[in-house]
Amino acid sequence: MVMTLEVRDLEFRYRERPVLDGASLEIGEGEVFGILGPNGCGKTTLLKNLNRNLRPSAGSVIIDGQDVSEMAKKDIAQMVAAVPQANEIRFAFTVREIVAMGRMPFQRYFEGESGFDMQIVDQALKDVGLYDMRDFHINEMSGGERQRVIIARALAQTPKYLLMDEPTNHLDVNMQFEVLDLVHRLSREKGLTVVIVSHDLPMASRYCDRIALINEHKVMCCGTPEEVLTPENMRAVFNVDAELSVDSKTGKHTVLLHGVSY
């Protein structure tokens, strides 16, 4: 069975104010899919509807043929994991304890982690390169390391789909590359479908297979970076003079930002 995540005519309102207006998308198995748009356009709201953290006013989200509105939250969590925009953890948990929280959707009430659960946790730590730091406390770690811990916690859910909300926010530039290199590699190695909300045009063009551009609460267009990130679209949505290019050193896409479009 081919795995897909479909959004069909999705509408969402906050106190009668439209935030999403008839959004439709289809995200294929193993894709790194970007949702781009300016602040306030509805991209984070769309992401939160994908795992039923929010319920739409109309329309539906279909995961592998199942309507999420008819699924139990625990069943959704066994298929879809999320990496939130903020990863602040106030308590001095160890890295391994935090990653083990990803096994909760598979456990019965008051049941601890099994040996099988901890094998999955340790593999997730190895996948993100933190196994040797498993006994460190989270408040001893850098921002990039903390983000990898949160990704490992999501991987411990053994999801088919990984939702990421501005995953490089508040990270140094080198850590931004490190985190997105990691996510892209995991997508390719594990067949993981990754959905990334971002407003970072150069990073999205580099890592995303396809992109949906949201403007004024609607999906304006969807396609490959070449199809979506045209100078005209970037001017209309972000009010910037920009062009999609190919980095001569890496051979990857990038966006050259020339300045405000007047």
Report on the structure:
The protein contains 9 helices and 12 strands. By secondary structure, it is an alpha/beta fold. The chain has 2 domains: 1-79 and 159-224, 3-Layer(aba) Sandwich (Rossmann fold), CATH 3.40.50; 88-156, no CATH class. The strands form 3 sheets. Strands 6-7-8-3-9-10 form a 6-stranded mixed β-sheet, with helices on both faces. It has a 4-stranded antiparallel β-sheet with strand order 2-1-4-5, covered by helices on one side. A hairpin with a 2-residue loop joins strand 4 and strand 5 (66-67). The longest helix is centred in the C-terminal third of the chain and has 18 residues, at 173-190. The radius of gyration is 19 Å and the shape is globular.
Structure, briefly:
The protein is α/β, with parallel strands linked by helices and 262 residues long. The chain has nine helices and twelve strands. The chain folds into two domains: 1-79 and 159-224, Rossmann fold (3-Layer(aba) Sandwich), CATH 3.40.50; 88-156, no CATH class.
Question: What is the assigned CATH homologous superfamily of the largest domain?
Answer: P-loop containing nucleotide triphosphate hydrolases
In the sheet with the most strands, the strands line up as 6-7-8-3-9-10
What is the CATH third-level topology name of the largest domain? Rossmann fold
Instruction: Characterize the overall form.
Output: globular
Helical coverage, percent range: 25-40%
Order of helices and strands: EEEHEEHEHHHEHEHEEHHEE
Q: Tell how many strands the DSSP assignment holds.
A: 12
CATH class of the largest domain: Alpha Beta
Low-confidence stretches: none
Structural class, please? Answer: alpha/beta
The first-to-last residue Cα distance is 49 Å
Largest sheet: 6 strands, mixed
Please give the radius of gyration in angstroms: 19 Å
In percent terms, what proportion of residues is strand? 25-35%
Number of domains: 2
Q: What is the mean predicted local confidence, pLDDT? A: 92
- CATH-defined architecture of the largest domain: 3-Layer(aba) Sandwich
